[in-house]
Amino acid sequence: MKKVSLYIGLALFFAFTSCTEYLDVKDKGQVIPETAEEFSALIHNHLRNIDEGNDYAILGAYTTTVSYEGYSDNLDGDLNTTDRVPLYVGTDINSMTTRYGTLYSVIKDCNIILDNLEDQTSELGKKTMAIAYALRGICYYNLMRAYCEPYDKAKVSTMNGVPLVVTFDMEGKPARSRMQETIDFIINDLTTAIKMNQADKQYRFDVNVMKFYLARTYFWTQEWELAAATAKEVLDVYPLVKGEEYVAMMQSEVDQKGNELLRSGIKKHLGYTDLEFGYVQGRPVSQGLIDLFTEKENDIRFDLFFTKKLLNRKALRSVIRSAEMCLIMAESYAHLNNTKDALYYLNLIRSHRISSYTDYTENSLPVVDQNALIQTDATGKALTPLLAAILNERRKEFYMENGDRWFELKRNGCPEFWWGYAGVKYETQKFLYTFPLPKSDIALNPALEQNPGYDVY
User: What pLDDT, on the 0 to 100 scale, is given for residue 268?
Assistant: First the structure.
């Protein structure tokens, strides 16, 4: 146990350093774990952070959700009355570099396990290896989504990816990979983990959670057929819930319920989100979001999410649930020009949320709102009524969850918008959707290229 204690001390030292910084630190008395139990302790440290709601790298804490909602257009910045919800992303740019380092700290632990764990045949050894591959793939997915420019199929071989640290090398100073290399690495890690068929839910990242993130990766990188097929595997295991079961799931503050695969804070005490919940009510919900609820009270989400004064009352959560897979399938089929299946999955989720429900048909879809913030799809084409309806449904379903709206804005054209508050114009410009690499990494490693727009950062 002495070895574990020494290593955990080193891990805490590295916890707040970024990619280049931790690679540049000289080894001072490091003790690498030896047994499967000691290696698994590295994994459990990160799982415990998720359970306690203190994870800011993998799934994210509920406070992360609050910030991303503040960056997006779901809450009205013009009518803001609180300084606890950021008015726009520019106020938090510095903190994004800390998150970059936190992600690489998790990757460091995964690399130590994958490089050094010799016991890969015992049940514990196999579980530890599977989760190390999964967490590394998920962290690189999070890095790609936040620190790389939006995916562009025509430029993927030349676009910047992120530095790929594949082994624990104290002297390494990796340059940025190309985007396609980053994508291939993520997919390889996740598919490797999936093949190990880790089914123990006590380890949180079982095979279905891994497939969930693989579906997300395929979706972000516009591999529509693979995204739909992988999402279906998850949805088949975690079918949509509705009615009282849906209400119980959405109102649950700490317990994982319904079709949730993973959530943050399940070991927190009741009431732990009350403080942030109150602060969120310092900004009313934007009228643009409210207007999407055309069925109003017939939509179970309307009264569940908003007060009569159009303030938030949805429980704050960082969670993944299979409704996202349903909407990934709908959009993927739309991009594949498979209108029948796209409508089927769009109508499936709506039928689970709206009473006195009538299916959308190709002829009854609402027209595209020319005043909506998103006007182009992920491929750069003008929105069709079908894709607009799917994006609108996603916005309604995942309001106040996981920063979903922010990344949907990024994925679909990076639209610019602004809030006017206290005589100041807060403008979200296109480049701000891609966060900067830390200045310290750029200084230590001349091979690293900063993201556009941050030359003077």
Answer: 81
The identity of residue 204, as a single letter, is R
> Per-residue pLDDT for 193 more than 80?
yes
Sign of CA dihedral 156, 157, 159, 165: positive
For residues 379 and 386, the answer to whether their CB atoms sit within 8 Å is no
Radius of gyration in angstroms for the set of CA atoms belonging to the chain, rounded to a whole number: 22
379-389 core/surface letters (b: 16 or more CB in 10 A; e: else): eeeebeebbbb
Listed residue (344, 329, 193, 319) closest to 266, CA to CA: 319
Confirm if 132 and 113 have CB atoms less than 8 A apart. yes
Lowest mean pLDDT among 1-10, 104-113, 203-212, 263-272: 1-10
Q: Write b or e for each residue in 326-351: b if 16 or more Cβ atoms lie within 10 A of its Cβ, otherwise e.
A: bbbbbbbbbbeeeeeebbebbbbbbe
**Rounded to an integer, what is the distance from CA 364 to the centroid of its chain?**
32
Separation between Cα atoms, residue 273 and residue 255, nearest integer Å? 13
Tens of pLDDT, residue by residue over 24-69, are 333 434 567 888 999 999 999 999 999 999 998 999 888 888 899 9
* Strand ranges inside 179-285, DSSP E: 260-263
| 3-class DSSP state of 94 | helix
Average pLDDT of the residues in 357-363: 95
What is the C-alpha to C-alpha distance for residues 105 and 23, in angstroms, rounded to an integer?
A: 10
Q: Please give the CATH architecture assigned to the domain spanning 2-434.
A: Alpha Horseshoe (1.25)
Question: Nearest to residue 173, comparing CAs of 17, 21, 10?
Answer: 21
Express each pLDDT in 124-181 by its tens digit: 999 999 999 999 999 999 999 999 999 999 999 999 999 999 987 766 789 999 999 9
For residues 338 and 332, what is the distance between their CA atoms, to the nearest angstrom?
Answer: 9
Q: Where are the domains of the chain?
A: 2-434
Q: Which residue has the tokens 């916890």?
A: 15
